[in-house]
Amino acid sequence: xxxxxxxxxxxxxxxxxxxxxxxxxxxxxxxxxxxxxxxxxxxxxxxxxxxxxxxxxxxxxxxxxxxxxxxxxxxxxxxxxxxxxxxxxxxxxxxxxxxxxxxxxxxxxxxxxxxxxxxxxxxxxxxxxxxxxxxxxxxxxxxxxxxxxxxxxxxxxxxxxxxxxxxxxxxxxxxxxxxxxxxxxxxxxxxxxxxxxxxxxxxxxxxxxxxxxxxxxxxxxxxxxxxxxxxxxxxxxxxxxxxxxxxxxxxxxxxxxxxxxxxxxxxxxxxxxxxxxxxxxxxxxxxxxxxxxxxxxxxxxxxxxxxxxxxxxxxxxxxxxxxxxxxxxxxxxxxxxxxxxxxxxxxxxx
Length: 350
What we know:
Blueprint: H1 4-19, H2 28-53, H3 61-70, E1 82-88, E2 97-99, E3 104-107, E4 112-115, E5 119-121, E6 127-134, E7 148-151, E8 160-162, H4 176-188, H5 196-204, E9 209-216, E10 223-230, H6 237-250, E11 256-260, E12 263-275, H7 281-295, H8 307-315, E13 320-327, E14 338-349
Parallel strand pairs: 10-11, 12-14
Antiparallel strand pairs: 1-6, 1-8, 2-5, 3-4, 3-7, 4-6, 9-10, 12-13
Helix pairs in contact: 1-2, 3-4
């Protein structure tokens, strides 16, 4: 790509060479050449941009989506993490306390979670559970239990809140690099309506599917077992039925397609962490737990649990100075039909 000044200099040099007339810096002809050079520079940039969008290796955004559509692929959309929040009061009251739908709560990182139904702390009771979702779609809404402890505006009579269980199901919209990898992979393994590439690409086109493993002939000739996971890990029955319905309509004649959830492999994690100056252990350890919980998502389907990868996640948390991992004591091999799931995550100071 050429800048306006470079194009102007070339045009000026060529004009002077052919006419023998030396242009004055601020003359009328110099201004005309500069205007043309500016337009040519814009056109040059447009041509360069068009070239980039013409190939999946360099395209981006909606233009990359068009390359995906041409390969029968779709970018997966984001999903909101869901869970429930417990609202408490200290004294039993003779009247109900209302926690309105749309009540906003937050965690220490400032992520917002919104109640989706109006809930009552009944007269004579001290708490109520309200269903809630993350305000923003994405994996950032997958937070551990007891981490949502602030209220943007506390309902009258409510003194505290927290989430008894982890929020899960949040999934980021598929990134350009992720969909690009799938597009380029579709050229290397061409789906033909019956091979593994076909089943994998079709399953990943369904919103909510984070990873898929295809096991042909697992139950004998003419059988295909499809193992799927969601962003939260183990898929819901609704998601399993959606994938199965799609393949029932597309499967080959005399092929028995079975869609199922993976078996979970519980992986307890125990680590010691030292923190940098200026950070507190309580805040850093909470961030480490959050990062590790987010790592154990559905994308780990069929992937080994590597201590080196866990260390990468831990060391990527701001404020971590050093760490040591005691559990798992060694790398854990995972079969295609298995999904590693975070067990108890213990973070100690050391």
